[in-house]
Backbone:
C-alpha cells in the first residue's frame, strides 16, 4: 500500500479501485470466468454430460449468429438498468436491494399508457416518464426512512419489494386488466412500443435506452459535482462531511437515480418485449420476476461500473439465451437444473472479486442489522422468560 | 471485573468521567486492592493523581520510557521535566528540535496580536462523543498575522474544539465568529466560504478519500468552486488536473500524476496534499490540528515552514498540537489546554518547559512558580 508510485489508472477504469489479484480488472474477470467455466465443466463431467459439447451449445446459443445476438441483447437490456440501480447506490455507500420492487412499479406505470391515445413516439416517451417517476417514487421512501429514522435500507427495500409485488399483482388483476383476457394486463398500444431492431426477434430499441442510461450515469458519477459527492460519501462519509458534502443529499440522489433506472427497466420489459407487450398477472409476472435481483449479480460481475455493467449484462444475457439451447442440444442434452448450476458457478466466480472488495461494507451492514435485531429482540425475549 | 479476583488491574485514564468525590472513592478502593496484593497499572496524564495514589511512576514520552521514579521521591517539577523532555533550569523555552527541523523563518511575528481579529471564541461549551463536557467555557481570539498555539496532552478537548470551529460538531453553547460572522451551527461548506482552511488531525479518516485519485482529493471541499465546475455542474477535469499539477509543483508532492490513487502516496505526501489543498484556498485562517503527526523530519519541517510563511503573509493560524517542541518553535501566543480549559494563555517565552509540563499535567497556574 505504501509504495510510492501507484499505477496511473486509465480514465475509463477510474472507478475500479483495487483488484484482488493486482491484475487489470478485465483480465481478472476473464480469469474468474475461466475458473467458473472449469467448475461448471467439472460438475457436468461428474454427472455424465459432455462439458465440451454443452459449452459449445451455450456459445452457439448466445453469440452464434444475428438471431442469437439479438436474443442475448434483448435479455441484457433490463439487466443493465437494474444493475445500474444497485451500483449507483453502492457507489453512495448503500445497499439498495429494491430494484425488483421499483421495477414492478415502473412496469405498472408504463402499462398505464394503454389507457389513453397519443401520437407515436410521444406516447412512448410519456410511458417512460411514467415508469421512471414511479420507480423513483418507490425508491424515495426507503431513502427518506433511512435519513429521518435510521431505518436500514437493506430491510426496508426488501420489504418494499414484497409490497410492490403484491400491489402490482392487484393492479394487474383489478385495474389494468385486459377485459378479454383476465390473465394479462392491457396491451401497450403500438404507438408506445419500442420499435423492433432485428425482425423476427425480441430485440428492440430499448437496448439503446439502457446503454444510454449507463453512459449518462457514468458521466454523472465521474464528471459532475453531484456524482463526485455521491462517490466521496460512499467511500468515506466522514471525509465527505469534512469536505462540505451533505451525506443526506447524496443518499437521496443515489436512490432517486437508482429508482429511475429500475423504473425504466420495468418499462423496457413491457414496452419492448414482443409478442405480448403486457404483464402477466395471472402467471405471477414470469417476464418481470427476478430481473431486479439478477441485476445485482450483473452489477457485481460488472464491478459496479456503468461500462462494466454493459459488458456483464451481455454476458448474462448470453448465459440466459444460450442456456436454453444447452437444454436441447445433441443426443445427451444438459437438463435445466444442471444449466442453472453451471450458470451459477460462472456468475459466482465472476462476482467474487467485487464481493471481496465490498466485503467490509457488507460485513458492517450485517453487524448493524444483527445489532438492531438484538435491540428489538430483547424486550420480547424478556417477556417470554417472565 | 474485580469480582473475578484479578491479579493485575490496568486502568487507562479512569478518572476522566468521574467527579472529584468519585475519584476519591476509586482511589480508596485502589489502595485497598493494592494492600490485598493486587498489582495495579494506572495510566493518566494528571500529575496529582499519580502522586496521590501510586507507589512507583514511569514516564512515557513519544513512545519511549524516559523515567522510572519512586513516588515518594518524585516532585511535581521532576515529573513535569520528564514529561516535556530536556529542561535546563532557568532556560525558558529550550526547543528540542535540531536546527534543520526549525522553520527558516523562525522569528516571531512582527504584527503579533495587533492584526485584525479573525476568530473570536467566547464561553464555548461542547460535549465529547461520550456526552461528557469536552470543551469547558473556552474564550480566545486569533488575529491575522499570528500563530496561536494550543498545547496539551491529547484528549483534553482539543479535537472537539477544532470540530466545533469547523462545523463537524455542534457546540452546546457559546459564541464563535469568523470576522464577525457567527459560525456555530453552520455546516463545513458555509464555514469554508468564510475563509477557513482546516488541516484535520486524522488525514485518513477526515482529510482524504483514500481510494480517490490525487486529483479527486485535491478538490475535496472546493469541488463546487466556479473554477472547477462548469455548466450543468460538470467537473472541469482539465482545469482540475492543471490545478493538481500546480499543487504538486508548489508543495513538492511526490506522485506519478494526478490520477494516482491517494493511498499509494506516502504519509508525508498525503499530508502535503492536504496542506496544499487547504492553503491553496487562500484562507483568512488556517485551523491546523496535529499537522505533522506521524511524518518524517523532512515533511514535518516543510509543513511547519508553510505555516510560518502563511503567518508572515498575514493569515491567522490556530495550531493545535501535542508536540510541545513544535508549538514552542512556531507560536506567537500559547495556550495550554487541560480538561477542556486553558490553564494559561501567554507568550511562549513566559514559561519554561517545566512550568508548561506542570500546567499540562493539571497543576494550576498560581501553584506554578
Residues:
Amino acid at each position: 500500500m505504501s509504495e510510492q508510485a501507484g499505477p496511473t489508472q486509465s480514465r475509463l477504469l477510474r472507478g475500479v479501485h483495487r483488484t484482488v489479484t493486482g491484475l487489470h480488472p478485465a483480465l481478472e474477470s476473464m480469469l474468474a470466468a475461466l475458473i467458473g467455466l472449469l467448475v461448471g465443466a467439472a460438475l457436468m463431467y461428474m454427472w455424465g454430460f459432455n462439458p465440451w459439447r454443452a459449452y459449445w451449445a451455450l456459445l452457439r446459443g448466445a453469440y452464434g449468429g444475428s438471431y442469437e445476438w439479438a436474443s442475448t441483447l434483448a435479455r441484457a437490456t433490463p439487466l443493465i438498468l437494474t444493475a445500474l440501480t444497485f451500483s449507483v447506490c453502492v457507489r453512495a455507500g448503500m445497499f439498495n436491494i429494491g430494484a425488483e420492487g421499483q421495477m414492478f412499479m415502473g412496469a405498472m406505470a408504463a402499462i398505464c399508457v394503454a389507457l389513453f391515445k397519443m401520437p407515436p413516439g410521444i406516447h412512448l416517451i410519456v410511458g417512460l416518464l411514467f415508469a421512471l417517476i414511479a420507480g423513483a417514487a418507490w425508491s424515495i421512501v426507503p431513502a427518506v426512512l433511512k435519513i429521518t429514522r435510521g431505518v436500514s435500507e437493506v430491510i426496508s427495500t426488501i420489504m418494499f419489494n414484497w409490497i410492490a409485488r403484491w400491489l402490482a399483482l392487484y393492479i394487474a388483476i383489478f385495474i389494468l386488466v385486459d377485459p378479454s383476457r383476465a390473465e394479462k394486463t392491457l396491451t401497450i398500444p403500438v404507438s408506445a412500443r419500442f420499435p423492433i431492431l432485428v425482425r423476427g426477434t425480441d430485440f428492440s430499441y430499448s437496448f439503446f435506452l439502457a446503454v444510454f442510461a449507463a453512459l449518462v450515469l457514468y458521466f454523472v458519477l465521474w464528471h459532475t459535482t453531484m456524482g463526485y459527492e455521491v462517490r466521496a460519501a460512499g467511500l468515506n462519509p466522514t471525509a465527505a462531511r469534512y469536505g462540505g458534502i451533505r451525506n443526506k443529499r447524496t443518499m437521496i440522489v443515489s436512490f432517486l437515480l437508482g429508482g429511475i433506472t429500475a423504473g425504466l427497466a420495468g418499462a423496457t420489459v413491457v414496452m419492448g418485449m414482443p409478442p405480448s407487450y403486457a404483464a402477466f398477472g395471472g402467471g405471477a409476472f414470469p417476464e418481470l420476476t427476478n430481473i431486479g435481483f439478477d441485476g445485482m449479480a450483473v452489477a457485481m460481475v460488472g464491478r459496479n461500473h456503468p461500462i462494466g455493467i454493459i459488458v456483464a449484462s451481455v454476458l448474462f444475457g448470453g448465459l440466459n439465451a444460450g442456456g436454453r439451447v444447452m437444454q436441447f442440444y445433441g443426443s445427451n442434452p444438459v437438463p435445466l437444473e444442471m444449466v442453472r448450476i453451471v450458470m451459477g458457478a460462472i456468475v459466482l466466480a465472476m462476482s467474487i472479486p467485487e464481493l471481496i472488495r465490498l466485503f467490509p461494507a457488507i460485513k458492517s451492514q450485517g453487524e448493524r442489522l444483527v445489532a438492531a435485531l438484538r435491540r428489538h429482540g430483547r424486550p420480547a425475549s424478556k417477556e417470554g422468560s417472565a | 471485573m474485580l469480582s473475578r479476583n484479578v491479579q493485575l488491574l490496568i486502568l487507562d485514564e479512569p478518572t476522566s468521567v468521574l467527579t472529584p468525590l468519585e475519584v476519591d472513592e476509586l482511589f480508596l478502593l485502589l489502595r485497598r486492592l493494592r494492600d490485598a496484593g493486587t498489582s495495579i497499572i494506572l495510566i493518566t496524564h494528571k500529575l496529582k493523581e499519580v502522586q496521590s495514589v501510586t507507589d512507583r511512576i514511569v514516564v512515557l514520552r513519544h513512545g519511549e520510557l524516559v523515567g522510572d521514579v519512586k513516588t515518594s521521591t518524585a516532585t511535581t517539577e521532576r515529573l513535569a521535566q520528564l514529561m516535556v523532555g530536556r529542561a535546563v533550569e532557568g532556560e525558558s523555552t529550550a526547543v528540542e528540535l535540531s536546527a534543520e527541523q526549525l522553520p527558516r523563518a523562525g522569528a516571531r511575528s512582527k504584527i503579533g496580536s495587533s492584526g485584525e481579529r479573525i476568530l473570536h471564541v467566547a464561553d464555548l461549551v461542547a460535549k465529547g462523543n461520550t456526552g461528557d463536557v469536552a470543551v469547558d467555557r473556552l474564550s480566545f481570539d486569533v488575529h491575522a498575522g499570528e500563530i496561536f498555539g494550543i498545547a496539551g496532552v491529547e484528549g483534553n478537548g482539543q479535537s472537539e474544539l477544532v470540530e466545533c470551529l469547523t462545523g463537524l460538531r455542534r457546540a452546546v453553547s457559546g459564541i464563535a465568529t469568523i470576522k464577525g460572522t457567527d459560525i456555530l451551527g453552520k455546516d463545513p461548506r458555509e464555514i469554508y466560504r468564510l475563509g477557513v482552511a482546516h488541516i484535520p488531525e486524522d488525514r485518513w479518516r477526515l482529510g482524504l478519500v483514500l481510494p480517490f485519485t490525487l486529483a479527486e482529493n485535491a478538490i475535496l471541499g472546493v469541488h463546487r468552486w466556479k473554477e472547477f465546475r462548469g455548466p450543468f455542474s460538470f467537473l472541469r477535469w482539465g482545469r482540475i488536473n492543471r490545478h493538481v499539477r500546480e499543487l504538486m509543483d508548489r508543495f513538492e508532492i511526490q506522485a506519478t500524476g494526478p490520477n494516482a490513487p491517494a493511498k499509494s502516496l506516502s504519509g508525508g505526501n498525503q499530508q502535503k496534499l492536504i496542506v496544499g489543498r487547504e492553503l491553496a484556498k487562500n484562507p483568512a485562517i488556517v485551523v491546523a490540528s496535529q499537522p505533522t503527526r506521524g511524518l518524517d523530519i523532512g515533511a514535518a519541517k516543510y509543513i511547519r515552514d508553510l505555516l510560518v510563511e502563511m503567518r508572515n503573509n498575514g493569515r491567522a493560524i490556530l495550531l493545535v498540537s501535542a508536540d510541545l517542541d513544535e508549538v514552542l518553535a512556531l507560536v506567537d501566543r500559547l495556550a495550554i489546554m487541560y480538561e477542556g480549559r486553558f490553564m494559561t494563555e501567554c507568550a511562549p517565552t513566559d514559561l519554561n518547559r517545566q512550568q508548561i509540563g506542570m500546567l499540562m499535567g493539571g497543576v494550576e497556574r498560581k501553584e506554578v512558580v
Remarks:
- Residues 1-13, 379-386 of chain A have pLDDT under 50 and may be disordered.
